[in-house]
Amino acid sequence: MSELLLQVRDLKVHFRGRRQGMFGEHSTVHAVDGVSFDVKRGTTFGLVGESGSGKTTTALAVMRLVEATGGTIALGDDEVLSMQGEALRKLRRRMQIIFQDPYSSLNPRVRAGAIVREPLDLLEVGEPGDRDRREAELFRLVGLRPEQRALFPHQFSGGQRQRIGIARALATQPDLVVCDEPVSALDVAIQAQILNLLRRLQAEFGLTYLFISHDLGVVQHMCDEIAVMYLGQIVELADRVSLFRTPLHPYSWALLSAVPSADPAIARGKKRVRLQGDPPSPIDPPKGCRFAGRCPFAEPRCSESDPVLREIRPGHRVACHLVGEDGSAPHLTAPQAAE
Ligand code: SF4
């Protein structure tokens, strides 16, 4: 069995935008624009970034829930984007998703047991009798009682509803579980319980998570490797320790400056970086670094050519013209840009 579960190469998701003028051409929305990353089995890979960075669209394209415009995606030895018919149906068993909002992602008119069982029936997993046993087992696994299967979603708390969502995602024993902001709609006290449940299930069943979040505190708690996305592209990719200790891209540096550090030495030297303005539109983005309009270190060359994602240290890659091969970065030499 390969150590790599998922390989994404040069993934693009472009949507047709509005027509420019009555007889003009349609614009193109570059939601995801040349994204590449690997996810190892049994690990958690994080996609982080602001709203509109393309992280959710990337995950939905991996699951074939939105159409990719280009690139390749391999799940184990299978090429995902070329699958059709029965092969695609079987693929659905191998990839499941936990949605952000446990309030709206569960059908209020369907009993909790039927919600968890639905993917087993739809994808015809096992015999009907086995599915009953599996349904009860899944309730126990996520910390619910089997007799609660008869209840409707409104009879559960927010945390319990997310447990139902997790049970549903695990029903088909998927290879890959996409966790799309799985705790952002929950109270802080409940968030920790759900994150700990996800970690326990991962340890018990060797699950692989593609974890999407804008909350870097949550990402630091959950992820082994992290890709920072900005306007449809990965600007930095590293293991957790490397990224949180030494973010090399000015955008990652700004994002991480808002995360409290448990290390007093790091916390003392840390200043909050406030980025000016909003990300530009993903409609026909200009050439050069897409962060240039907000970057405190931008130089003329930044808007002239696209920075390439380069490996600076083993496993640590960054796309910035001003990061040196020795790991020098503009914010490390001129941190006065922070408040
Ligand atoms: Fe800033 Fe230039 Fe680096 Fe882009 S390439 S992040 S604009 S320094």
Task: Please provide a written account of the structure.
The protein has 11 helices and 12 strands. Helix 4 packs across helix 5. It is 30% helix and 23% strand. The strands form 2 sheets. Strands 6-7-8-3-9-10-12-11 form an 8-stranded mixed β-sheet, sandwiched between helices. Strands 2-1-4-5 form a 4-stranded antiparallel β-sheet. It has a domain at 241-339. It has helices spanning 55-62, 85-94, 112-122, 128-141, 158-170, 188-205, 216-222, 240-245, 250-256, 264-268, 330-333, and strands at residues 4-19, 26-40, 44-48, 70-75, 78-79, 95-98, 176-180, 208-213, 225-230, 233-239, 310-313, 316-318. Strand 9 and strand 10 (233-239) form a beta hairpin. By secondary structure, the protein is α/β, with parallel strands linked by helices. The chain is globular and about 65 Å long. Bound molecules: iron/sulfur cluster. Iron/sulfur cluster (SF4) is lined by residues 249-250, 289, 291-292, 295, 297-298, 302, 307, 320-322, 330.
